[in-house]
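Structure (tokenized):
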């Protein structure tokens, strides 16, 4: 969310590129026209920061379909804008269409996921009850469907969200449909685990712990956030019950996985310290050579028990449902939240906690 890592969020028929100038505490905005329809989901390529995918509504013959496409933003915006806020709002530019993800035979697109550690050439889309793996070819100008699978069962099964795991050589994804969370192997396109009734109501979002390969977070309309070890899914490892309405988003911090962000229809953003199930449950480990005898004894006492989980802060700057929360990819202490009324709020992890984690 600094000059080299713009925040991207969607407005009806527009995408706004937001640059946060941390030193001067200034937000700059550039507007890109998305003329094909109203945007419901955005995801950016991990390999090329100028490329993104959108899921959007398209009306044809009085029927509304949710489609997906891959786009490139103008080159000058990739490295960050240096315009003043007054000038930038009047400059609208157009996205360059790279390719459509043809979903005519598969239903409405719910989301698009990029392979986390790849070269930006593999993406997965969820369309109704289908998982579709695409290869982007010819400089992303062509999307070729390489494999797919369908969720079988009674009723109208539809995926609501999904997440591609950065672990296991990027061969696993997790999906949510109704109250169930499933894991899939992208090589065989077969189910590898299933958490039935993961939540009491609809599951809204998923996220993998970036540092612990089997740990997955989920949130839903039962107001809860749950943490799972996918090797044993009979019970969640931990449950958070801090929100009073639907939880739309859950996000692990990329660097310090004890820091968890959640956003909810209760208009609040909550930052939690889930240190007991993090990759450093005893706090930041210090090299023995750096400690004196007295400090060594104190360190031994300190690491006998895991640190306590807690809510760090509750942010109430929003006046409407918070639909998205996201950590900065450039600064691990910076995060943004977006609410239904279009308000974007940028916050920082409290300084005292930052130094407690680092020192």
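Design, position by position:
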């Amino acid at each position: 969310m600094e000059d080299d890592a713009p925040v991207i969020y969607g407005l009806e028929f527009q995408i706004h590129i937001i640059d946060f100038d941390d030193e001067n505490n200034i937000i700059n905005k550039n507007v890109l026209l998305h003329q094909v329809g109203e945007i419901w989901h955005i995801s950016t390529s991990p390999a090329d920061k100028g490329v993104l995918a959108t899921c959007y509504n398209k009306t044809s013959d009085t029927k509304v379909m949710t489609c997906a496409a891959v786009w490139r933003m103008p080159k000058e915006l990739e490295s960050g804008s240096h315009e003043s806020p007054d000038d930038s709002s009047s400059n609208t530019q157009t996205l360059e269409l790279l390719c459509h993800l043809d979903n005519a035979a598969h239903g409405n697109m719910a989301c698009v996921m990029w392979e986390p550690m790849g070269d930006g050439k593999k993406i997965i889309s969820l369309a109704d009850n289908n998982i579709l793996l695409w290869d982007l070819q010819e400089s992303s100008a062509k999307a070729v469907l390489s494999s797919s699978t369908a969720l079988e069962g009674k009723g109208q099964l539809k995926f609501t969200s999904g997440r591609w795991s950065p672990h296991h050589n990027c061969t696993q994804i997790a999906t949510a449909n109704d109250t169930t969370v499933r894991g899939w192997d992208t090589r065989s396109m077969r189910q590898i685990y299933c958490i039935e009734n993961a939540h009491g109501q609809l599951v809204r979002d998923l996220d993998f712990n970036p540092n612990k390969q089997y740990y997955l977070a989920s949130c839903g309309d039962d107001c809860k956030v749950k943490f799972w070890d996918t090797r044993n899914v009979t019970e969640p490892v931990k449950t958070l019950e801090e929100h009073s309405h639907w939880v739309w988003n859950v996000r692990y911090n990329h660097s310090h996985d004890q820091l968890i962000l959640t956003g909810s229809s209760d208009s609040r953003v909550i930052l939690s310290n889930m240190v007991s199930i993090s990759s450093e449950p005893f706090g930041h480990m210090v090299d023995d050579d750096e400690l004196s005898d007295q400090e060594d004894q104190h360190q031994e006492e300190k690491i006998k028990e895991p640190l306590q989980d807690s809510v760090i802060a509750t942010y109430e700057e929003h006046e409407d449902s918070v639909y998205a929360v996201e950590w900065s990819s450039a600064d691990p202490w910076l995060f943004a939240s977006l609410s239904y009324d279009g308000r974007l709020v940028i916050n920082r992890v409290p300084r005292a906690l930052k130094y407690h984690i680092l020192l």
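Reviewer-requested clarification: The CA atoms of residues 283 and 338 lie 31 Å apart. Helices lie at 75-78, 85-88, 293-302, 351-358.
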